[in-house]
Specification:
By secondary structure, this protein is mostly helical.
Length: 295
């Protein structure tokens, strides 16, 4: 029973990694840019969740999960603003300039939040309070089931969006050949901005699901979470939607089992060690790179 519970806990954690990794993989696949400030978008979403719940939802006795709406909206605004103000002016610059910019934006957001709200953690009550589900004789929290289901639904909808909509097809075209996309009338600037917006919106969803599992927000929470989500994207094959999700699930399960049966102190080392091993054996990640499927 304990093993099954750890697997389910791993899937919950992996679902959060997957949602964040989708933001990394979309931006890299389309803009050829690694947005290391993405972790701080989750932190912004977590603080939005805290204040939405403590100042509005509890006061008016509303369901706490409604905090997902302001979290997604604020994260999307921040994602688009970061792309427009920080990355767009450097779009044709060397990648090292973009990397330095991403690190600078990350540090700016961390320190701004720390200055305004302090370095102490901000807590929220349990977001999903219903009785746990019973799966294979094991009690599983409602938040774990909701997290996995929401991730699966959003991944499916994202795939449909990329393949069936005009905007999604424009993203695929930009990812394959930006110059040719411009020649056929695609607005590359707007497409890249939309990419950042979608990635940030997914981070907003991830932030409230993270708060449901670990109900505290602090200014530095996005750093390690962002690194692990980026690791998940690379693990599965960065630039691929299925790769980001597979990497997220795999990373979450490995981390959960390691903490339960080996050592919580060694969990991160083992996770990153497995990444190094995979990259040595298959540098393109588990699912490799496919230009036809890349987004």
């Amino acid at each position: 029973m304990g093993f099954i519970l750890q697997i389910l806990n791993g899937l919950q954690l992996g679902s959060i990694y997957a949602l964040v990794a989708l933001g990394y993989t979309m931006v890299y696949g389309i803009a050829r840019l690694i947005n290391f400030a993405h972790g701080e978008i989750i932190m912004i979403g977590a603080y939005t969740t805290v204040f939405s719940i403590n100042l509005i939802l509890i006061k008016y006795n509303l369901p706490l999960w409604l905090a997902i709406f302001p979290a997604v909206i604020i994260c999307t605004i921040f994602g688009i603003a970061i792309e427009r103000l920080a990355y767009k002016p450097l779009r044709n610059s060397p990648r090292i300039s973009n990397l330095i910019t991403a690190i600078g934006v990350s540090l700016l957001l961390q320190n701004t939040v720390m200055k305004i709200f302090g370095a102490s953690s901000r807590a929220v009550p349990p977001i999903f309070t219903a009785k746990p589900f019973v799966i294979a004789g094991t009690n599983v929290s409602k938040s774990a089931v909701i997290t996995v289901v929401v991730t699966a639904i959003l991944t499916y909808l994202l795939q449909v969006f990329m393949k069936k909509t005009k905007q999604g097809k424009a993203m695929v075209a930009v990812s394959q050949d930006r110059g040719a996309a411009e020649l056929v009338g695609i607005n590359v600037d707007n497409t890249l901005t939309l990419t950042f917006g979608i990635g940030a919106a997914l981070a907003g969803v991830a932030s409230i699901l993270y708060m449901a599992a670990y109900p505290q927000a602090n200014p530095l929470m996005g750093s390690l979470l962002g690194i692990k989500a980026f690791t998940a994207a690379v693990f599965g094959g960065i630039g691929l939607i299925p790769g980001a999700v597979l990497g997220g699930f795999f990373l979450g399960v490995i981390e959960s089992l390691t903490r339960a049966y080996i050592s919580s102190k060694l969990a991160d080392a083992i996770v990153f060690g497995l990444l190094i091993l995979v990259l040595l054996i298959k540098p393109t990640g588990l699912l490799g790179q496919s230009d036809k499927e890349k987004v």
